[in-house]
Amino acid sequence: MYELLWSGIVDVFQLKYMLPLVIGTVVGVVGGALPGVTITMTIIIVLPFTFGLDPLQGLAAMTGVYVGGSAGGLVTATLLGIPGTPSSVATTFDGFPMAKKGDAGRALWLGVWGSFFGGMIGGVFLIAATGPLANFAIAFGPWEFFSLFVLALSMVAGLVGRSLLKGFLSGAIGLIVTVLGNDPMMGQPRLTFGIGFLEGGVPFLPVLIGVFAFAQIMSDVEKMGGARTLAGSIDRATKLTVSHLKVIWEVLSKPFLLLWASFIGVVIGVLPAVGGSAANMMAYDQAKKFSRHPERFGTGTSEGIVASESANNANVGGSLVTIMAFGIPGDAVTAVMLGALTIHGIQSGPLFISQNPQIAYGIFAAYLLAHPIMALVIAIGARFMLRVVTVPKAALFPVVLVLCVIGAYALSNTMSSVYILLIFGLLGYAMVKLKLPLAPLILGVILGDQIETNLIRAIMTDSDLWQFVVRPISGVLLAMSVGSVILALWQHRRHRQRVGDDDSPDF
Amino acid sequence: MIGRDGITGLVALAASLVLFWLTLGLEKNPLVPIGPGFYPQIVLGFTALLGLALVAQDLLGRRKAPAVPEAPKAAPGGKLNYTLVALTFAVFGAYVLLLPLAGYRVATFLFVLGCSFLLEPPRRAGLWVRGGVLAAITTVVTYYVFEQYLAVLLPRGTWTGF
User: Fold this and answer.
1) Less CB within 10 Å around the terminal CB: N or C of chain B?
2) pLDDT in tens, A219-232
């Protein structure tokens, strides 16, 4: 394993891989720093640029975006009090008060080094766990895969959003999208409505791009005119220089906090579609509970910043584990990475590492190297990023939409993918307005074909449906699905009793 | 009175029942006895049940809760601008329709120009210039990067020939 990892690092150090990794990390940090531009949108923008690259070049760029984006949000969170991404919301609670007290540099760099070390801990888990988990999954038959995908879908439907019914409905809409077109066993057309391009089914990348890009952009467009400008919030005289050794020591002198927050990040990353937005809040909450001085939280304590940032970068490592070991995307960003693999004809799943060791270990290496690059990018460009956040959205959104069109069109060099993009853009925005969460829809679209194929294969091998229950792994996975639904029901009931309904959209 | 969730549930119920009915006409293949309609029927049946449950939840929730009219929730900065959203979708739709007719370069230039003016009306000369420069740079840079360096063949227009 270590030889392969070393070989991956040597590979990625070549200019042809290092350049996309650096560019991806820069774009990720800038995208993460821009309030209203999520990591998902940034990776959607980067996607079309990877089509002409070889698989590892493209994946290195995307890994850079993911790592850079997860840390980039802290720049505006600490210096402006506005989280660049949902995964840096908790960083604002202590980062901004610390900056307001005149410690802006320390606040920023506590976040950067917290991200760095949290990401590295996530990396250790990624490298150590992916292989054994993939080996475990290799023994799966169609019953186990079916149950695993059902578990993933039920967890996402239950954990995302505020209504279990709506979560399941969103997932079911995703599954319906996959039954349009030829059936996967015999290629017989079904539900095509005489539309030629539907015979090949609905490709998931235009669906993903349409749903997420339009949901985000249109949710911002509807507020345009009333939004305050950030230009006035920027204090150009703020000093960002610090003693890095002191800050690093401040982070490392709380090893339990760092490890626990990173562990939370990794575990949440492994759960499909929960993501960094939950990881940073949970880690912050845990840090406050375990702290000797919980009263200091919210006033500018270093513990809050380190917990939030280490968790959201460790979350990246966890998300990559599920996609590389099982082929199940941990969130929308890894779903785009899954799409990039598909474009290059690479099958993700348990055989991915054994069949593509160069790419798999290249991704590990890119992930590890992206962290020091991220720190360097923020060191050089933090001040510049504060200027970038003043880019008017009226100029940004048309360019993003053009890149979405290119991303969809380039998949098949036909307009059909662009039509799908438009249709699902409308659906995505409608779902936001109806408060239907988007993540289950995407997971349904990604897993739908595999759920059907494995279900049919299992039944054709043995028509006894009890096999799904009595086979040990499959039975445990199905029991976990039921457990996750019960847990979600309990959580939703408790949440409703405590806070009632709130109105924020579920991306 | 039925609410937004109830209407969502009704739409889901109606759509899944129509699609379910369409799957009944699918012929079974003798080689695969399960048939192409088997899985879609499970999914659509499940969706219909979810739709029904959402309608029931909405109606029961309204019966329990006191009848308070739903106030539209606006953004902190003011009212939500749905007209602008509709116009942005319309401009994007026009762009999608124009792409195969006018080609990537013409359609993209017009789209970026139109969309940026729509999102921020050019009330001073600087904004006219910014819109024009943005449209030109976006078109030229994306065209050259994707066509020349990334081997992505962008749409040609049947009207323009390029």
Assistant:
1) N
2) 889 988 644 555 55
Q: How far, CA to CA in Å, does A405 sit from each of A150, A426, A450, B102, B104?
A: 32, 14, 27, 15, 10
Q: How far is CA A260 from CA A81, A339, A441, A488, in A?
A: 25, 32, 32, 24
- C-alpha neighbours within 13 Å on the C-beta side of residue A16: 8
Report the pLDDT value the prediction gives residue A72, as an integer from 0 to 100: 85
- List the structure tokens of A22: 């650096």
* C-alpha–C-alpha distance, residues A80 and A337, integer Å: 31
Nearest Cα residue in chain B from A219: B85
pLDDT (0 to 100) of residue B68: 52
Does residue B72 register a pLDDT over 70? no
| A56/chain B closest Cα distance in angstroms | 15
In A80-232, where does DSSP find H-type helix?
Answer: 89-98, 104-138, 142-159, 164-179, 204-221
* Residues A184-242 pLDDT 10s: 878 888 988 888 888 888 988 899 889 988 988 998 899 886 445 555 555 666 677 78
From chain A, pick out residues whose CB is under 8 angstroms from the CB of B142. Answer: 402-403, 406
Cα separation, A148 vs A481, whole angstroms: 9
Q: Name the residue with tokens 């924020």.
A: A504
Residue B69 Cα, gap to closest chain A Cα (Å): 15
**B119:A393 CB<8 A:** yes
